[in-house]
Amino acid sequence: MGALNRTIDKANEALGQCLPCNAIIQSTEYLHSVTRSLLKTLRPPDLDELGLETALENLVSNWKMAHPEIDCSLIIRGDSRTHSESINFLYYRAVQEGLVNIVRHSRADQVSIELTFPINDQDRSSLLKLTDNGIGMLESDTHNGGLGLIGLRERVLAVGGTFTVQSHQPSGVYLIIQTGNTS
Question: Which pLDDT score is estimated for 146?
Answer without folding.
Answer: 64
